[in-house]
Design brief:
With 253 residues, the protein is of the alpha+beta class. It folds into 2 domains: 3-53; 113-252, MucB/RseB, C-terminal domain (Phosphorylase Kinase, domain 1), CATH 3.30.200. Helices cover 51% and strands 19% of the residues. The protein is built from 8 helices and 7 strands. A 7-stranded antiparallel β-sheet has the order 1-2-3-4-7-6-5, with helices on both faces. The N and C termini lie far apart (49 Å).
């Protein structure tokens, strides 16, 4: 990384807006470049001067959640618009397939499970995408290894109370959780870790469409099941065998 590239990223580093890879690369450059290091120090001095002169106000505790929910709501609406466009395109391309199905049915065959499988796969892909977005920058809203802290955090944010378990003793420690959206509905996303691998467990009411029991996409493994009143989906780039072992722990409650 040269000085021009580093200086264009200094404000992002100062505001903690860079992803991990870029942050490490810029910091490595700063260790060898006194000019760029001085530029970053200037930013810090200006920031301290502004903070020292500006009046301070305490925002209400609920403001952060309100802003996050509003932003996520707009993201959900955008995803819904994009999904409608995709569905319209899919229906056009499936026109010939639908005509073929009608002909086959008239001859006595009934392959009517095609659309259901496609819906399940689309849901599986949506959940993988939600996991990828979290890895890109918004992994957790509440950070805690204590399930008695994580579970109450969802109170008032969801129309249900998700079950939260800690399996740190088995090598899958709880790290926190966040509010996410699947098919336009709010869900609980519980965050666990296995060594350097992050595992998201999406919890939602059991009614409605389910993704495939097992689904792989873009190097991520996904396992889904129902238990009691809830549907669970865990997704990670963790080895499939280890993710299966973790899912078995969750299935036992």
């Amino acid at each position: 990384m040269n000085c021009d590239e580093a200086r264009s990223l200094l404000s992002g580093l100062f505001d903690d807006e860079l992803d991990r890879a870029l942050r490490v690369e810029v910091q490595a450059h700063l260790e060898t470049c006194a000019f760029c290091s001085e530029a970053l120090d200037d930013m810090r001095r200006v920031g301290e001067a502004i903070r020292g002169a500006a009046p301070a106000f305490t925002a209400p505790e609920h403001l952060r959640d309100n802003v996050r929910f509003a932003l996520r709501g707009s993201q959900v609406l955008e995803r819904q618009v994009q999904e409608r466009k995709k569905r319209a395109s899919r229906w056009k391309s499936w026109g010939a397939l639908a005509a073929g199905i009608v002909i086959v049915a008239a001859l006595g065959s009934a392959p009517f499970l095609v659309n259901a499988r496609n819906q399940q796969r689309a849901l599986g892909e949506e959940i993988v995408s939600a996991h990828q977005r979290a890895l890109a920058g918004r992994e957790m809203d509440v950070i805690s290894t204590d399930r008695h802290t994580v579970k109450p955090w969802f109170n008032g944010k969801l129309p249900f109370s998700p079950p939260v378990a800690d399996h740190g003793a088995e090598g899958f420690p709880l790290e926190g959780g966040r509010l996410d959206y699947i098919s336009g509905q709010p869900v609980a996303a519980l965050v666990y870790r296995r060594r350097l691998h992050r595992i998201d467990v999406f919890v939602r009411p059991a009614e409605g469409e389910m993704p495939p029991a097992r689904f792989d996409r873009y190097g991520f493994h996904e396992i889904s099941w129902k238990r009691g009143d809830f549907a669970f989906t865990c997704v990670s780039d963790l080895d499939a065998a280890e993710l299966t072992a973790f899912a078995e722990l969750l299935k036992r409650g």
